[in-house]
Amino acid sequence: MSSHAYLKPESPRQRNERIRRAETHSLETRTTEAWATIISRPERHRHPGPAITVSGGRWFEAFKTGAEFLIAATILLLSLPVLILAVLAIRLTSRGPAFYTQLRLGQRGVPYVIYKLRSMYYDCERTSGIQWCTRGDPRVTPVGRILRKTHIDEIPQLWNVLRGEMSLVGPRPERPELVAKLEQDLPYYRDRLLVKPGLTGLAQVQLPADTDLESVRNKLFLDRVYVSRRGLWLDLRIYVATAFYLFGVSFSTLRRWFNLPAELRVEAENDQEEIILQRRATPLYTTVSIHN
After folding, report:
1. pLDDT at res. 249
2. With CB atoms 3.0 to 4.6 Å apart as the test, which of 10, 135, 191, 284 could cross-link to 14 if both were Cys?
């Protein structure tokens, strides 16, 4: 039986509480309004075709949650000196707070507040608008470029893992206002919401950061591969691949060394066939073969 991410409409009381929470964290109301659009009109985001089934059972989910809590707590404690130095560098070199909060969508489309070290100039989106970060982005501060290069800016997200809002491994969380658009342009985009978002993942260790719709399409394919094939062995490979990636090992080398999966099996509509989608070398594309 395939699993689907059906998003339930919220009550006026729930909506008011969510907006209050967003305002508490200095988030703009338009961000929550984009989320309201997603949950109030789910029929606009339904796409026909094959769906994926979430792999792993309850035992895996329980083990993954417990193990990742211990790992996240350990890494957070060990990285405190680095985190303190990063906070000082941010405060001394640019205006604004050191920490950055933003609304993201988690498992089953539940919104939550993500924590990061601020790597851009304070309140820069007021003039630039919402957009993906590009190479040489002028919104990024000099200190922020170092934080992004070393991924130190991601350390506070370990707090989200401890709170149970994120996993160490999973699809990257996206902003509600971007999801509203992406779900219209990309079929099956909400399949990413079937599991908790992660700091790293199958897509993150094989492809660079999102810069446009096509890059999101490529990552979506690998996110769906992870959702349909996740398990202890795959997570372990992604953990180690992430460590090598932080030391500069290329995506192609990681893919080869760790034999990372790039094949997605889904059920056809008549449940009598299996559709196999395969990922090929860059540029990314898929081929479909049907087996009786």
Report:
1. 94
2. 10
Report DSSP state, residue 67.
H
Length of the chain: 292
pLDDT digits (tens, 9 = 90+) for 67-124: 999 999 999 999 999 999 999 999 999 999 999 999 999 999 999 999 999 998 887 7
Between 134 and 110, the more confident residue is 110
DSSP assignments along 177-227, one per residue: HHHHHHHHHSTTGGGGGGS--EEE-TTTTTS----SHHHHHHHHHHHHHHH
- Rounded CA-CA distance 216/171 in Å is 11
Q: What residue spans define the domains of the chain?
A: 57-123+134-262
Q: Give yes or no for a contact between 194 and 225, defined as CB atoms under 8 angstroms apart.
A: no
Q: What is the DSSP string of 120-164?
A: B-TTTHHHH-S----TT-TTB-HHHHHHHHHTGGGTTHHHHHHTT
24 and 75 in contact (C-beta within 8 Å)?
A: no
Query: What residues does 140 pair with on adjacent strands?
Result: 120
Q: Which of 122, 123, 116 is nearest to 147 (CA)?
A: 116
